[in-house]
Amino acid sequence: MAITKPSKSILKKCPNCEKLAVAKFRPFCSSRCSQLDLSKWLNENYRVPVVEIDDFDEEEFLDEEN
User: Fold this and answer.
1) What is the mean pLDDT of each run of 10 residues along the chain (66 residues)?
2) Bridge partners, residue 20, by sequence
3) pTM
């Protein structure tokens, strides 16, 4: 019986504390780290960047006098 080396996908590190990730909590190492990450999202410490586009034409909203 040959011993095989685990694939790299199993040996990922926890994004919070750098410990090895556990399959049950992947990509985190524990429930605590997953809850800490969730709280950062809920407190808006993490944000997804948004590019706002101005959809209206300014000429449509100018006064008739101008």
Assistant:
1) 60 91 93 95 86 70 59
2) 13
3) 0.55
What phi and psi values does residue 24 have, to the nearest 5 degrees?
-65, -35
How far does CA 36 lie from the centroid of its chain?
A: 13
**Rounded distance between C-alpha atoms, residue 4 and residue 46, angstroms:** 38
66 beta partners: none
Helix (H, G, I), strand (E, B) or coil at 38: helix
Q: Is the dihedral of CA 29, 33, 34, 35 positive or negative?
A: positive
Give domain 11-45's CATH architecture. 2-Layer Sandwich (3.30)
